[in-house]
Amino acid sequence: SIPLGYFGGIGAASRNGILFKGSNFLDIIANVTTVVMDKTGTLTKGVFKVQDIIPDNISKEEFLSVLSSLESHSTHPIAKAISQYYPSSKSPESVEEISGKGIKARIDGRQVLAGNTSLLKSFDIPYPEELDKIVETTVVLAIDKEYKGFLTISDEVKHDAEVAISNLKVKQIKTMMLSGDKDALTQNIAKKLAVDVAFGGLLPEGKVEKLESLKKNPKEIVAFVGDGINDAPVLALSDVGIAMGGLGSDAAIETADVIIQTDQPSKISTAINIGKETKKIVY
Ligand code: ADP
Ligand code: MG
């Protein structure tokens, strides 16, 4: 039978907009040693806005119309920003998402790629090396294996992200941020928020590797917090998988052990506090 105290814990959590899928997760979360977080949608708003548009050897209109037509077929937050910024007018065929890199399709009989510079590298398409030095999220376009320019888009750090990290520090819990976005940008945000360690430019399998290497130490009890876009494997691998609501995907809500129904990362420490309080009552 489940001790009464656990019901109190689950109830207190739910009044705070936090759903525990089982009372065992109250115990696990109380003992967490490291909180690993996704950047986009977890610590940042995940709502991108188009900034600068730098076409190369193509008109700005053609650049935007090809890019938008391609991105209108993706549900990635980056794609949404671009397809909302400029109307799509072409019908791409054989659209393929390339996880952690971008999207590929045929438009008017031409092969079109949109994504990060790793996508271009994997297709052996040369691009100006300055691109990798820009400390902003960039989306690069290539048509028929030729670089056609890029645009920059920016996201904002959530208002309570800094508090969320400092609350964990006070509890002597280590913090780690993982991202598929540029490493330079990832390090910048980590520094601003005082996150202990950060890794950018990761493919989904790279995030899994980071979690596995943490878990090699049997003393580590790891929580992963993500919005769920490409995060299901790491959510499943962690000792306690936490999905952030608001933007959370269905797959994440299914895989997660704990669901934060608001978009506030400060609820991570609230959930840990409730776990700790519940333990005091139960034992
Ligand atoms: P994260 O959620 O950590 O940003 P993702 O795996 O979702 O990681 O994406 C990693 C990177 O892949 C993005 O930062 C972007 O550069 C590129 N990318 C993914 N999907 C798209 C897309 N539809 N359009 C453009 N770039 C994309
Ligand atoms: Mg993601």
TrEMBL record:
It comes from the Bacteria. It is found in: Cell membrane; Membrane. One of its GO terms (cellular component) is plasma membrane. GO terms for molecular function: ATP binding; ATP hydrolysis activity; cadmium ion transmembrane transporter activity; metal ion binding; P-type zinc transporter activity. Keywords: ATP-binding, Cell membrane, Membrane, Metal-binding, Nucleotide-binding, Translocase, Transmembrane, Transmembrane helix. The keyword Ribonucleoprotein does not apply. Belongs to the cation transport ATPase (P-type) (TC 3.A.3) family. Type IB subfamily. This is P-type Zn(2+) transporter. It comes from Epilithonimonas mollis. The chain holds residues 342 to 624 of 675 of the full protein.
